[in-house]
Amino acid sequence: MVLKMIVDVCRPHDFLDRTMDRYIRFFPCLSDPVRRSSLGLKVALVMLHLVYAGILFAFYRHLIEEAKIKPWYTASYFLLFVATLIQYFVTSCSSPGYVLDAMRAANEKDNAFRKASKQPASSKNVNVVVTIDRNHPEKTVPADVTSWTKIVMDLYSPGTLLRNFTCSYCHVEQPPRTKHCHDCDRCVLQFDHHCVWLGTCIGQENHCRFWWYIFEETALCLWTGIWYISYLKADIARSWWKDAIVIVLLITLSIALIFLLLLLLFHSYLVLTNQTTYELVRRRRIFYLRSLPERVYPFSKGVCRNLYEFCCHRGNIYNLEPLPSAQVIEERSRPYTCSDIMRCRCC
Fold first, then answer.
1. Which residue numbers are catalytic?
2. Are residues 151 and 187 in the same domain?
3. Palmitoyltransferase DHHC domain: from which residue to which, for each copy (predicted)?
4. Do 245 and 115 share a structural domain?
5. How many other β-carbons are positioned within 10 Å of the β-carbon of residue 190?
6. Contact (CB, 8 A) for 295 and 289
7. Domain check: are 188 and 296 in the same one?
């Protein structure tokens, strides 16, 4: 027994592998390396929040005294602290809106409608008309294709080849603003980016949650930084090593705050113009955007409408935006005039 322990110590990799196998035996969900990495990242982020807040209250005794005088002030901080962590886990566990889920739901709805109306599922000698948007003309497509293919074809302009919007990995038809994520190995509706900190993609279904998370995280970092500065400015007797720890934490907190502020401003700009990070960065690689001028936002419906759809989105997987017509693109390419501002054209 002693010899076995000595051998395990001498070979740490084997010892770690055996220990990991024992944990996986009791927790089968940790057998996936991606899940282990995501879980480890979540634990590290929670511990980081607890360290920053815990050291502050452990060193700054004045906060405890102030909590007795102004309990609402400290309670507000803890409420923001808990809300930020809850928002983090809600966003990380939420679906960004996968094309396969939308396709499955569309086909199921179409099959249920056909059964209810007692119509045949398909007919190769008949054409079916599918209308998605009243502003777009009706298109006639062959009826031997799936319901999802009809919906996606109606979102693109006439003459668009099927291979241009078919994913070469999932082999499904992608609606506009969709991209295949290689980390998730799925196509995401209104793909923005894959967030390694959350362990999930940011897309149509969780972009609003992501914005609120970075907003709460920014507010929490700012509030914590103010308290750290108040601790350093307080005229109280304390050890030098406490000051050193607080200064190091304040420097790292300031760097994180700058990053969060820039990220918040950037995504606020994307929300107001109805864009995604992928569309902004890879505009020249998207076949239906590369011919448009840089300052034209083809999917923008005005600031107020963009905000409304972003904040009041109910998670409807059929909220698929068609490509704007040439007339709409031309109208949005016009420069603003004084009359446009008076008529609130930008809104």
1. 195
2. yes
3. 166-282
4. no
5. 25
6. no
7. yes
Residue 106 and residue 188 share a domain: yes
CA distance 194 to 201: 4
Domain check: are 250 and 103 in the same one? no
| Residue 15 resides in a domain | no
Within 13 Å and on the Cβ side, how many CA atoms surround 320? 27
Domain that holds residue 268: 27-93+204-273
Give dist(CA 155, CA 318) in Å, integer. 12
Q: pLDDT, tens digit, for every residue of 212-250?
A: 999 999 999 999 999 999 888 886 777 888 889 999 999
**Helix%, strand%, coil% for the chain, nearest 5:** 60, 5, 35
How buried is residue 170: exposed, middle or buried, by Cβ count under 10 Å (0-12/13-18/19+)? Answer: middle
- Yes or no: say if 269 and 306 are a contact pair by the CB < 8 Å rule: no
Take residue 170 and report the two structure tokens written for it: 């999932």
**Domain limit, last residue, from 216, 249, 273:** 273
Q: Give me the phi and psi of 67, to 5 degrees please.
A: -65, -30
Q: Which of 42, 32, 48, 23 is nearest to 200 (CA)?
A: 42
Q: What tokens were used for 273? A: 């113009």
Indicate if 232 and 214 belong to the same structural domain: yes
What tens digit of pLDDT does each residue of 253-310 get? 999 999 999 999 999 999 999 999 999 999 988 888 888 887 888 898 888 889 998 9
Q: Is residue 74 part of a domain?
A: yes
* Long-range own/partner contacts, residues 42-48 (CB < 8 A, 24 or more apart): 42/88, 42/89, 42/92, 42/199, 45/88, 45/197, 46/85
Work out the widest C-alpha separation in the chain, in whole angstroms: 89
- Contact assessment for residue 76 and residue 224, using Cβ atoms and an 8 Å cutoff: no
Task: Tell me: pLDDT of 140 over 60.
Answer: no
Q: Minimal CA–CA distance to 52: which of 209, 252, 267, 307?
A: 252
* b/e sequence 219-231, b meaning 16+ C-beta within 10 Å: ebbeebbebbeeb
Least confident of 132-141, 220-229, 322-331: 132-141
Q: Give the sign of the dihedral formed by CA 335, CA 340, CA 342, CA 345.
A: negative
